[in-house]
Amino acid sequence: MQLISAVVFSAVVSGCFGQNETFPTWFLFGAATAAYQIEGGWNAGDKGESMWDRLLHSTNDITLDSSNADVACDSYHLWKRDIEVAKELGLNVYRFSISWPRILPSGFPNQVSEDGKKYYSNLIDGLLEKGIQPVVTMYHWDLPQSLQDLGGWANPLIATWFGDYARVLYNLFGDRVKYWITLNEPLAICDGGYNKMAAPYLDDMKIGGYLCNKHVLLAHAAAYRVYEKEFQSLYYGKLSMANVFFWFKPEKTTDEEATKLAIQMWEGRYAHPIYSESGGWPPELEKILAENSKKEGYPYPRLPPFTPEEIEFVKGTYDFYALNHYTTRLVRKVDPEKAGSWPYYGCKEIGVDFVNHPTWKTAVIDWFAIYPEGLREQLLWINNTYGVDQVMITENGYPDLNDDLFDVQRMTYIKTMLQQVFLAINDGIHVMGYTVWSMMDNFEWVTGYKTKYGLYAVDFLSPNLTRTPRESARFYSSVTKGRRIPKYRVLVDYEDV
Ligand code: BGC
């Protein structure tokens, strides 16, 4: 019996899913995208160049398929179709990001682009007309090249520049946007950008990456404080920064301490300064990194200390915890000398490696283990550690390499993740909402167009960049419609039954 095709469904029913989990009325179902990954129009109107534009125009060697995102899903022109897609999915919220150089071509507020203003204003109004709330990310990795030329995230002035940019956004869109995400995944911005995994594609994690760590937190806080002071009493919006994308568990009981440290390295480094009562870097991590720096002969800790004023400035700059969650890794304690540097330099700093659990399945990406319980465990950890009142899952999604419309694995992944969200809500954690990554296939950074995350498939070869719902989209729209995980029939087509 061979499974052949997803497109034509025969009447064979293979399995029924579902319990009657009804989500609370306040729970927000959503889907997400990001500007550089979908918009195209890289030089439309007076848009400035971003550091991703520069990087991918300078070489073909970075993306797996030698592609770039000059056109991507062409959402710069096809935004009306995107709104229809959001509506077809029954979304309560659509998370998208604003391209900094599209709004501020020079990177600074000396010139605010009329085209950029119009584009995002239309998108926001169009969503609101359909009853969909925008969740707007201010920075999803496409820094103006002009600012990268000035040192980008390694320059401390970037905190002020980001605060200035944020003020422009609040002035333009604050009347209509109630959920703001300042930065998407500082881990990817710094540990990725300075470890040759993303623009600016530097190999400088030891120094540049840690400077970036401090400056992303100050930049986030600057944007938060501008809102708090100048806009909160006018617009009553909520702000956060989207953190991390994986969760950790010990491989063996002897790896428990190393796991705690790994959580501090990859999540706490960006969360402790904002959410903890004391603020500042996670103390045990700061100590280890300072010792490492000393051993290596540096006169200062490579992870730059915060001043007491900076600690106060960053502490408490949140209205909810924005969590991106994809996978769970097992942590194995190893000799720092022998630690692999994958996925990030931090493994060497604290002496850990990541491994897969022998019984966990993985997606096409071998490190992408499927362990839905990890999401609930991470939510519990966030709740217990920081006592935050509200959490929004701002990304969660499933990668595949094929174009199939019949994406049972993605659907199952989303379904089992939603079950964990439901359980977490029953645990008493106020999970405000859940946005799937991604609403549609898009430019998946260094893997180009090869990796698909979309509820909707995008035909990148068609002139209209046609968006077509996958089975997971059908499933997700029934979730959003019934506000529960439905009893769901998977219809499959067999060659020889
Ligand atoms: C990023 C997205 C990316 C996704 C899948 C997330 O960490 O925010 O931009 O497409 O991972 O790789």
In summary, what is this structure?
The protein is an alpha/beta fold and 497 residues long.
Chain-averaged pLDDT: 94
- SS elements, strand count: 16
Q: For the record, what is the CATH homologous superfamily label?
A: Glycosidases
How many structural domains can be distinguished in the coordinates? 1
Q: Helical residue percent?
A: 25-40%
Query: Which regions have little confidence, pLDDT < 50, spanning 5+ residues?
Result: 1-18
Strand order of the largest sheet: 3-4-5-6-7-9-12-13
What is the overall number of helices? Answer: 17
Q: What gross morphology would you assign?
A: globular
CATH domain fold name: TIM Barrel
Strand portion: 15-25%
Distance between the termini: 6 Å
Named CATH architecture: Alpha-Beta Barrel
Quaternary status: single chain
Heteromolecules bound: beta-D-glucopyranose
Please identify the structural class as seen in this structure.
Answer: alpha/beta
CATH class: Alpha Beta
The largest sheet is: 8 strands, parallel, barrel
Radius of gyration: 22 Å
Written description of the protein model:
The chain has about 500 residues and is of the alpha/beta class. It has one domain: Alpha-Beta Barrel (TIM Barrel), CATH 3.20.20. The protein has 17 helices and 16 strands. The chain has an eight-stranded parallel beta barrel with strand order 3-4-5-6-7-9-12-13, surrounded by five helices. Helix 7 runs parallel beside helix 9 and helix 16 packs parallel to helix 17. The longest helix has 26 residues. It binds beta-D-glucopyranose (BGC). The site of beta-D-glucopyranose has 11 residues, from loops.
